[in-house]
Amino acid sequence: MLHSTDSTIDPSSPIIQALFGGTFDPIHYGHLRPVEALAKQVGLKQVILLPNHVPPHRPQPEATASQRLEMVRLAVQDNPLFTVDTRELERQTPSYTIETLKSFRQEVGEQRPLAFIIGQDSLQSIHTWYKWEELLGICHLLVCSRPGYQSQLSTSDMQKWLEQHKIDTPISLRQKPHGCIYLAATPLLNISATDIRQRHQQGLSCDDLLPPAIQNYVDSRGLYRQ
Question: HAMAP family annotated for this entry (predicted)?
Answer without folding.
Answer: NaMN_adenylyltr (MF_00244)
